[in-house]
Amino acid sequence: MGYLTAQLKNPLHNQFSGSPHDLLVFQKDPGDSNRVSKRKYAIGFICTLAASAANAMMLCLTQLAFQKIIKRETIRAIIDMTIYENVVASLATLIGLFASGDWLNLNAEMQVFKSGKVSYVMTNGGSRIKF
Fold it and tell me: DSSP for 11-47?
């Protein structure tokens, strides 16, 4: 059971680790990486470690839930757990988006995106779906 659970992609890990990777992709001048301060590299390294730790913790909590709460080790139980985790992660992301007020800036971000609105939606949607 632990092997199957470990093979599932964890949605909360994606929420935690997506941001540092997105920051690297969307930096203003990617060819100018020599001028990035050591402090920013340290922050990126710490974020990567935190994302790995969060993923490990989530896998442990998932395994604990299977052993203590669900008490069955079937493929259906694994699929159900995956769906529940995805729903919780999606709700947490949406709550964070609306609570922070960032949803008010989405239209302005789409307007200044060089490739257009459709490309903006496809880029952001694709980065979340791929996980």
Answer: HHHHHHHHHHHHHHHT-S-GGGGGG--HHHHHHHHHH
Query: Which of 12, 16, 33 shows the shortest CA–CA distance to 24?
Result: 33
d(CA 20, CA 94): 19
Q: In Å, how far from its chain's centre is CA 50? A: 12
User: Tell me: the pLDDT tens digits for 43-84?
Assistant: 888 989 998 999 899 889 888 988 898 888 789 988 988 888
CA torsion through residues 124, 104, 51, 13, sign: negative
**What stretch of H or E contains 50?**
helix 38-65
Is the distance from CB of 70 to CB of 81 less than 8 angstroms? yes
Alpha carbon distance 122, 118 (integer Å): 6
pTM value?
0.53
